[in-house]
Hints:
Largest sheet: 4 strands, antiparallel
Strand content: 15-25%
Number of helices: 2
Strand order of the largest sheet: 1-3-6-5
Helix content: 10-25%
Distance between the termini: 44 Å
Mean pLDDT: 76
Order of helices and strands: HEEEEEEEEHEE
Shape: rod-shaped
Amino acid sequence: MSAGRRTLAIVTALASVGVALTVAAVVRQSDGSPARVLSVDPGDGAALASAPDAVVLRLSTGADSALSHVTVRDNAGNAVNDGRVRADGKTGLRQPVRLTDPGDYSIAYHITFSNGQDATGILRFSVGTGAPPQGIVDVPDPILDDADHAHGIDPLGATLLVIDGLVLVVVLALLLRRPARHRRPPARAPTVSATSGHLDGPPDEPAGR
Length: 209
C-alpha cells in the first residue's frame, strides 16, 4: 500500500469513529425536551406528622429503575431504605423506607431516564417533630451514594466500543496487506580481468573494452 492510500485509510477510519460518536450523541438526545423530576413525595421542607412507607418520584418521562438510585437517611446519616427502588407506573419511581424515629431526614436521588439523560437532587423533610427540617450536614452525593450505585456497561457505549474495534481491525488489515517491495540487487563494482586486462562488468552486462 502506498503512503497516500495508507493515509487515506487512516483518515477514513477516524472519520468513521467521529460519525459513530455523533450518531450516538444524537440518539441519546433524541428527546428534544430535557427529562426532569416533576415532584417528590415527601416534598422538600415537608413536616410530616406520621412516617411515610415510601418516597415517590414523579417524572416527565420513563426511567430505568435498575440504573436509578434513591437513598433516604436520618439525621445521623443512617440509610433507612427498605428494599430497592422500583417503577411506579410508567413515569414514576417508588423507594420503600422504614422510618422508626421522629426527626429530620434527607432524600438523595440519581435518576437515569430511559432516553439516557440523568437528574440528581437532594431534599429534606421531617417526621413527628412539628417543625420543618433543619440543615442536615454531610448528605452523601446522590451519584456516589454507595457501592450499589455502580452501573453496568451502557449498551450504547458497548456498541461504540465494538465499532471502534472493527475500525481498528480494518485499518490494521489494510496496513498488513502492503505488498513487499522488490529490491534490486546491489551493483557489483567492475573488476580487472587477470588474463585480458579488461574491466569485467556485472554478470548481466558485457565486459568493457
